[in-house]
Amino acid sequence: YWDYLGWSDTFARPEFAQRQRDYRRALQIRNVSTPQVVIDGRRQAPATAEALQIAIDEEAARRIFPPEIEFRETGDRVGVGSGRAPRGGADVVAVFYTAGPQTVEIARGDNRGQKVRHMNVVSAVRVLGPWTGRAVLYPLPDTASPDQAVAVLVQSRADRSILNGAVRDGR
To answer: Is residue 5 part of a domain?
Structure first.
């Protein structure tokens, strides 16, 4: 979107664009866009507190015994417990991000000259490996700086739904 308007998105990465295309197919929406919030990989919602809470509650009611996720004390590994794997399998995905706000000055396009505030900007998304329903321990890659937070998700390959997730704050 930003590139089309003549300003390169400061935070853009090819893997993020691919993730948006995957969500477009899974959510059956017409165009690739940047959703405000995707909940459990099943639906998108505006980031208003009320809409978000309703969507989270509805999706939580659908969950069936998700696998536990636990960060090891050393901070360099994460364990995913056993459970029922979805048809088609699942992946364990690490999402590295800088918690809190970041401000970017827009150089071109519709928002030229404005400063835009972004929250919890993602810097990397890495698939740690497959999850087949058995307990497994994954090393966390050295992708991010120690002050970055990481969210670990167990995500269905077939419909992109999130089976469970856990967050480790930056150090």
So the answer is: no
Q: How many domains does the chain have?
A: 1
pTM recorded for the entire structure? 0.67
**Tens of each residue's pLDDT in the chain, 171 residues:** 556 666 777 777 888 778 778 877 877 777 776 656 676 666 676 666 676 667 766 766 666 667 899 998 887 899 999 988 888 999 999 999 988 888 989 888 888 899 988 888 888 999 999 999 999 999 998 765 667 899 999 999 988 888 899 998 876
Phi, psi of 135 (to 5 degrees): -65, 140
Q: Residue 150 sits in which domain range? A: 14-168
